[in-house]
Every structure is written in structure tokens, then in C-alpha cells.
């Protein structure tokens, strides 16, 4: 390497090392400037969210509509809770009417008339309960539901047995035979004032029902409060059951989910 090239090399090295503090300071200032901008942005954002006069509230929980169910039957209540408890606040009221005052030889007409009468009484009860009426008025989509069901045994309409003896006779007659249920569901929409009804039928088939089975069913007493003395969910009756066709056990118990959903869709149409 010649003297000229060597001198040039040392000059470049000197210049490089002499400039290092300046580069370091520039880098530090540049970094501080970025952090300062970030800090200013954060401070500005924070101030925007905490400006006086501006209130931020958490989203209020939407209250569910109310479904007033006109029944005192525990099984119906259980089924209603299973299918509609998530979407509605369920309120149970018993529409106490004298069903014996309503007569008709047609099971469809009979159950429709009784279910309609129950709805009238149920709505009157709601109107008398000012607290409940107020809640319903402030819950859009609130509805009321009533039901009536009879057993149709080969053309004979059977309602609740009037004595243990009649309950025994009813249950014995179902041995190696079948029986139908006829039910009407009525639904009223408090907001629109619309009311609609829908019938439903089931057919249950039994094998032999022994006298011992009949005695156990009657002893438990539930059969005295059901149409035709018919308790499809009773453990002893279940052992004698062959099939339910058409229908489901829930429908035999007096609550038809499909009917309620169809009626809800009907009354909610504009």
C-alpha cells in the first residue's frame, strides 16, 4: 500500500470514530421523540375517555318478555320451563273456572271452549294484579297461554275422574287397548291483542295392565287430577306402554311445544 492510500485509510477511520457520539445522540433523541409522541397519544386518548360531562355506562341487560302460563299442573310447568324458560320469564297462574259448566259432545269443540274460558279468566287475573300488569306492559312480546285436554276413549270423552272407583275403571279399560287425547292450546299476545288457538291429538297403546299396577297408580293419587285418570309418565304405566303414535309423551302430559311455537309465530305476525 502506498503512502497516499495509507493516509487516506487513517483519515477515514478517524472520521468514523469521531462521528460515533453524534450518531448515538441522534439515535437517542429519535427514540425519545417517538416515546414522547406515544406518551402524548396515550395521554390524549386517556383524556378523551375521561372528559368531564361524558358518562360511559355498561350495556343494560335486556329483560325477557313474560309468558303467563295458566296451569297448576307440575308436569306442564316442568315442560314449559324446559322449552321456554330461556326466552321468557315464566309466571304461573291457575285460571279457576268451573269446567263442568261447559259441555260439548265434540272433544275438539269442548277443549277449545274450555281453553278459551281459561284464557278470559287468566287475562282478568293479570288485570287485577297491578304489579304483574305493569311488568307485562314494559316487557314487549309478553304472552299468555292456556290449555285444556280430555281423553277420547273410542268416542267417549273422559275428563278427570270423580272418584277413586272411577279412576280404577278408567285405567283398567286401557289394558291391551289404546286411548287418544285431544288438547287445545290458546295463546294471547298482550302487545298486539291477537289471540290464536290450535288443537293437538295423541294416541297411546298399552299391553296388559294388571290389577296390581292399577292399585299402585291409584294409590299415588296423581290419576285423580288428570283427564281419564291417565298418567303416561307413571313408572308402572310406563312398563305397560307399547308406543305413542302419533304424539309425544310431553303432548300426552298436556303441553305441546310445537303448538306453542306455531301460535307465537302466528300472533307476532303484523
TrEMBL record:
Keywords: Hydrolase, Signal. Coiled coil: none annotated. Residues 1-29 form the signal peptide. It comes from the Eukaryota. One of its GO terms (molecular function) is nucleoside triphosphate diphosphatase activity. It comes from Leishmania panamensis. This is Maf-like protein. InterPro entries: ITPase-like_fam, Maf-like. It holds the Pfam family Maf.
Amino acid at each position: 500500500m502506498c503512502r497516499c492510500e495509507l493516509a487516506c485509510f487513517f483519515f477515514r477511520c478517524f472520521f468514523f470514530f469521531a462521528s460515533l457520539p453524534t450518531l448515538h445522540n441522534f439515535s437517542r433523541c429519535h427514540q425519545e421523540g417517538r416515546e414522547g409522541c406515544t406518551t402524548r397519544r396515550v395521554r390524549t386518548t386517556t383524556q378523551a375517555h375521561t372528559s368531564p360531562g361524558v358518562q360511559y355506562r355498561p350495556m343494560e341487560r335486556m329483560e325477557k318478555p313474560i309468558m303467563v302460563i295458566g296451569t297448576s299442573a307440575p308436569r306442564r310447568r316442568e315442560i314449559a320451563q324446559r322449552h321456554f324458560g330461556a326466552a321468557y320469564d315464566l309466571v304461573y297462574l291457575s285460571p279457576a273456572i268451573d269446567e263442568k259448566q261447559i259441555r260439548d259432545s265434540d272433544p275438539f269443540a269442548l277443549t277449545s271452549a274450555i281453553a278459551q274460558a281459561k284464557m278470559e279468566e287468566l287475562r282478568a287475573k293479570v288485570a287485577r294484579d297491578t304489579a304483574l300488569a305493569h311488568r307485562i306492559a314494559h316487557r314487549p312480546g309478553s304472552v299468555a297461554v292456556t290449555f285444556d285436554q280430555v281423553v277420547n276413549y273410542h268416542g267417549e270423552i273422559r275428563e278427570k275422574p270423580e272418584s277413586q272407583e272411577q279412576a280404577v275403571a278408567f285405567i283398567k279399560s286401557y289394558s291391551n287397548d289404546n286411548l287418544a287425547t285431544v288438547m287445545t292450546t290458546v295463546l294471547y299476545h298482550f302487545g298486539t291483542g291477537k289471540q290464536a288457538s290450535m288443537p293437538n291429538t295423541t294416541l297411546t297403546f298399552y299391553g296388559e295392565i294388571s290389577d296390581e299396577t292399577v292399585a299402585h297408580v291409584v294409590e299415588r293419587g296423581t290419576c285423580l287430577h288428570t283427564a281419564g285418570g291417565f298418567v303416561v309418565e307413571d313408572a308402572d304405566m310406563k312398563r305397560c306402554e307399547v308406543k305413542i303414535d302419533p304424539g309425544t309423551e310431553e303432548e300426552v302430559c298436556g303441553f305441546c311445544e310445537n303448538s306453542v311455537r306455531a301460535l307465537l309465530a302466528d300472533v307476532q305476525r303484523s
